[in-house]
Write a structure and sequence with these properties.
With 826 residues, this protein is mainly alpha-helical. It is 60% helix and 5% strand. It has 24 helices and eleven strands. The protein has helices at residues 89-97, 104-108, 122-159, 170-198, 216-229, 267-272, 275-287, 292-313, 317-328, 331-381, 383-412, 420-429, 435-445, 457-467, 486-502, 514-535, 558-604, 621-660, 663-666, 672-691, 693-713, 720-744, 760-764, 774-809; strands spanning 3-6, 13-16, 24-26, 33-35, 50-51, 208-210, 236-240, 245-249, 261-266, 416-417, 511-512. α9 packs antiparallel against α10 (331-381) and α11 (383-412) crosses α12 (420-429).
Length: 826
């Protein structure tokens, strides 16, 4: 019997043979990976494939995923049964894609009773009151400090009026200044001291609100969790695109007298968890509200602690104006604002001290509250699931960083992912087989400090295992099944996120299917693998590769090209071991030379160099000059010895590309016409880019020198030589960026771009920058230094992928993947 397979991602339907049951494959439509399900004797006519969340291409991680959640035996069926909400078409499609019949009642009725409440000792409740009292005293002390400043200003205004009648001429003018300057500076100080008391938080993107009519199953599910932990149910559920969940009073202080709560859910959290893990997260958040009085007191503690943090670190336009006035006005007037800035700085330091005291005192209370909330989560879903959830949250948090990095890369080609939560989950799936090891290391590294508001993850996991709770809820389905149409909601919230980050200029047309972007990303990763295999990890921007401007074998028969290609490949492989050894030495010499350049810049700026600043001993100008000369000599000596293999590699690459243009080879290539046209564009662009590798190296060196000088400015404000050296290097950096832009403006970006047909220069630096703004210049320099290697590698990677395919058609085996090591691109 044939198996009808439906792709969970794009809903495309196609047939598969029974013999293919259990095999992996890709959807012909969207290229998502699937597993063909088994077709048993009682299987329905249509069986949906299980979509494999992890893409084939895996990303090397900073951390990884945790162990799978284990099921525990169900408890006694004491939970109240209610009619299940209606099933939407979106939910039915999700369930069908998951390979099962959708049954909301089975989820809602799986809550087997209530859990034992977490009891707080009387001493703990007393501690909450004492901590709250201390936290209230902190802003009271601050207000008293403002009153003291006002009193001193008043005393000066009343009792120092004699200064207004002192002498005549210049003496009288000086006396008036001595009288009025403190009043003006003091008034500014009082304003800036009052400002934190009245300042509102910075505006952030509003979450999207849901109601019970929109999402009946989700609300019913959350109600079940609240009922189990004996907490009030929320009146509203908000969703956003962050990996987080929180429950709070809907109208802040105004809701404290009742139980008007709002639950905020991050859709990436929903997309990345199953219903059991998700229920545990919700139970944790509402566990805070299971003890009404304690929660209200702790809410005040949290609010005061957050206020102190915000007023210490948050800046607004008034702070910027004060800085501008102190720097832009005549010194006789500007000195007043300088003194005001000094007093404001002292005020913020006072607030910082109050903030740290508040964190120290409230931290113990807040950490205990987290332990109590963890108990509710553990008792609802089980101790083992608590650990798997903790690990999964760590993984999703790191995957979010990768997803934002992906957005940066996608946006360079005028594209944004239309489903940010899906992108985060895809990143989590790309972490790779070392996931458990990375998560273990992350958990072991994080420790609990005196000012921490949350316990360390390993302590929370150990505390959960001490509970040894089996849990009362054991259903494990995708948490997104709780939503009427999770995919549509996720895409809507994705657009909300982009508009909050980039402004309302983001349009629907800027969004592209995440599957297409992931496919491009996977192709790029495959091309880089091809590049590493072809050059065996010796491809580097330290060594520009010169592509010939014309054909190597114009008019020669294809058989001649095949012979030449095989000869070039064989010679290259024979020379490879010695070349790799020489390249490692060359790479180290470049590192030594760059360190010497940085040390020399410090000595020229009259900054003391410590022995620990560099790996080499560069503690004197003489040592620095000697090290630079030695490194330069090694570079020149080895450079010529690296050329023969590089020429063989380029010859091999070009011969393969020229063979691909011959009809007898092109006929056997996949999408030959499109790929050959792309590679021709790439070859033209890569030739121009290769000629600018030397300019890029100079840019890299200039940025390295500035990265060494700039941190010293805050340590040596009175060092005129240092300031002058930074200013000089910034000017040289501007000139180098302009030269680089000019040379790369003569050739078009060779890959497809969604919005325009930019040059290489416009692709790397799409926006103009202000040459007089140091920050803008440094940002432009960073964009070039970081972006050019990726573009350069992408171009050569695409060409080597074609070359590998051509060699395969000629019967040449693919080279083995090189052993991964710490590589240097310059």
């Amino acid at each position: 019997m044939a198996i009808v397979v439906t792709c969970r991602n794009c809903q495309a339907t196609f047939g598969a043979k029974e013999a293919d049951a259990g095999r992996r494959g890709k959807c012909p439509n969207c290229k998502s990976e699937l597993i063909v399900p088994e077709a048993g004797p009682s299987a329905p006519a249509t069986i949906t494939a299980n979509l494999v969340e992890e893409p084939a291409q895996r990303r090397q991680p900073a951390v990884g995923a945790g162990s799978a959640a284990k099921s525990a035996p169900a408890g006694p069926p004491t939970a109240r049964r209610v009619p299940a909400p209606a099933v939407s078409a979106g939910q039915a499609a999700q369930a069908t894609a998951a390979g099962s019949t959708y049954n909301p009642a089975s989820i809602l009725n799986a809550f087997q009773g209530s859990i034992e409440p977490v009891r707080s000792a009387g001493g703990y409740r007393l501690a909450v009151v004492l901590v709250l009292g201390f936290m209230v005293l902190l802003p009271v002390f601050y207000v008293a400090l403002i009153g003291l400043v006002c009193l001193l200003l008043g005393l000066h205004a009343v009792y120092d009026t004699a200064l207004l009648h002192a002498g005549r001429g210049r003496g009288a003018l000086l006396a008036v200044m001595l009288y009025s300057a403190p009043l003006l500076a003091g008034a500014i100080l009082v304003f800036f001291m009052f400002k934190p008391l009245l300042a509102r938080p910075m505006k952030q993107g509003k979450p999207r609100s849901l109601n019970r009519e929109q999402e009946p199953l989700l609300f019913a599910f959350v109600d079940r969790v609240c009922e189990a932990v004996n907490a009030p149910a929320p009146s509203r559920i908000d969703v956003d695109c962050y990996v987080n969940a929180s429950a709070s009073f809907r109208r802040g202080m105004w809701s404290m007298l009742g139980n008007d709560l709002v639950l905020t859910l991050g859709l990436p959290l929903v997309a990345g968890l199953n219903t059991r893990q998700f229920a545990g997260v919700v139970a944790h958040e509402f566990g805070h509200f299971s003890q009404g009085a304690g929660m209200r007191l702790s809410y005040l503690v949290r609010t005061l602690s957050f206020w102190l943090t915000r007023v210490v670190y948050e800046r607004d336009e008034w702070d910027e104006r004060l800085v501008a006035w102190s720097q832009g006005l005549d010194i006789r007037i500007g000195i007043i604002f300088l003194f005001a800035r000094l007093f404001v700085w002292l005020t913020r330091k006072t607030l910082w001290l109050l903030m740290m005291l508040g964190h120290l005192v409230s931290g113990i209370l807040l950490r205990q509250m987290e332990y109590d909330a963890d108990c509710y989560e553990t008792r609802l879903v089980g101790s083992d699931v608590f650990e798997s959830t903790m690990r999964r949250l760590i993984l999703l948090d790191v995957a979010t960083q990768g997803a934002f990095a992906d957005l940066g890369e996608f946006s360079k080609e005028g594209r944004l992912s239309d489903d940010f939560p899906r992108l985060i989950v895809a990143n989590a799936g790309q972490i790779g087989p070392q996931a458990t090891k990375w998560v273990d290391e992350r958990i072991d590294e994080e420790s609990e400090g005196l000012f921490s508001t949350h316990p360390a993850p390993r302590d929370r996991i150990a505390h959960a295992h001490e509970e040894a709770a089996p849990g009362i809820f054991h259903v494990e389905r995708p948490a997104r099944d709780l939503f009427q149409n999770f995919a549509a909601l996720s895409k809507t919230c994705t657009l909300d996120l982009y508009r909050s980050l980039f402004g309302k200029q983001v349009k629907l047309t800027d969004l592209h299917p995440v599957e297409q972007l992931l496919a491009k990303q996977e192709q790029f990763a495959d091309d880089i693998k091809s590049l590493k295999r072809f050059f065996q990890n010796t491809f580097s921007l330290l060594r520009p590769l010169r592509l010939p401007q014309s054909s190597l074998t114009e008019g020669a028969p294809a058989t001649h090209l095949v012979v030449e290609l095989k000869r070039a490949r064989q010679s290259m492989l024979q020379q490879l071991p010695e070349h790799q050894r020489l390249f490692t030495t060359y790479d180290q010499a470049d590192t030594d030379w760059l360190e010497a350049e940085m040390a020399d810049a410090l000595f020229n700026a009259r900054v003391k160099v410590k022995a620990s600043d560099f790996k080499q001993s560069l503690t004197s100008p003489q040592q620095t000059l000697q090290a630079r000369a030695a490194a330069r000599g090694r570079l020149e000596q080895i450079s010529g010895q690296l050329v023969p293999l590089e020429e063989l590699a380029i010859r091999r690459l070009v011969l393969a590309m020229e063979l691909a243009q011959r009809d007898e080879v092109a006929a056997r290539l996949s999408t030959a016409q499109e790929r050959l046209a792309e590679c021709e564009r790439i070859r033209t662009a890569a030739a121009v880019a290769s000629a600018q590798v030397g300019v890029w190296l100079a840019l890299r060196n200039r940025m390295a020198v500035l990265s060494t000088l700039l941190p010293r400015l805050s340590e040596a404000r009175d060092n005129a030589s240092l300031f002058g050296s930074v200013e000089k290097n910034i000017g040289l950096l501007v000139r180098q960026i302009r030269d680089f832009q000019n040379e790369l403006s003569h050739v078009r970006y060779p890959f497809h771009h969604a919005k325009a047909d930019p040059t290489l220069s416009e692709f790397l630096l799409p926006q103009a920058f202000n040459e007089s703004d140091w920050s803008a210049v440094l940002s432009a320099g960073s964009a070039v230094v970081e972006g050019f290697p990726r573009l350069y590698a992408r171009m050569f990677g695409r060409m080597t992928a074609l070359a590998e395919e051509v060699e395969g058609l000629l019967g040449l085996p693919r080279q083995a993947d090189p052993v991964e090591s710490e590589e240097k691109t310059g």
